[in-house]
Amino acid sequence: MQDDTSSEQNPTHCSAINSSVPLVQGALPTLTLSGKIRVTVTFFLFLVSTTLNASFLLKLQKWTQKKEKGKKLSRMKVLLKHLTLANLLETLIVMPLDGMWNITVQWYAGELLCKILSYLKLFSMYAPAFMMVVISLDRSMAITRPLPVQSNRKLEQSMTGLAWGLSSVLAGPQNYN
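Structure for Gonadotropin releasing hormone receptor, as requested:
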């Protein structure tokens, strides 16, 4: 019983979504025509994005298999692989979540799942943006300092690791609302 009163006194983002308006049978939210159009477009883009990102990952995998033993994949291909994985993660999390939100019009899955999916949604939105920054920095350094950057694989690994790490850390506050 105390849990109910404490959540009412200090509502989080998720609990505010779950109990923001008491629903009366005649006043239930409904899916409008514009909502149906948004859902249709979202799921169409989901299918296109999933197909294209997955096919590009498969193409990168084939390039990796064709490489001779001992030769590593080029820096740009490694960075493109990380960017494609980040885009695929965003596609698989954000688009279905938004589509289902538009269909149901309200949240039914509970507080814990709301926090987990909110975290994953933010994480998957930060990751592609940070990967673009990493690619931009890498290309900038390749132009301004071509010789030192060419042989520095640790820099590439640390920048991609930092991008994934920052995405994870910056999405964390979503769980403490």
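The chain has one domain: 31-176.
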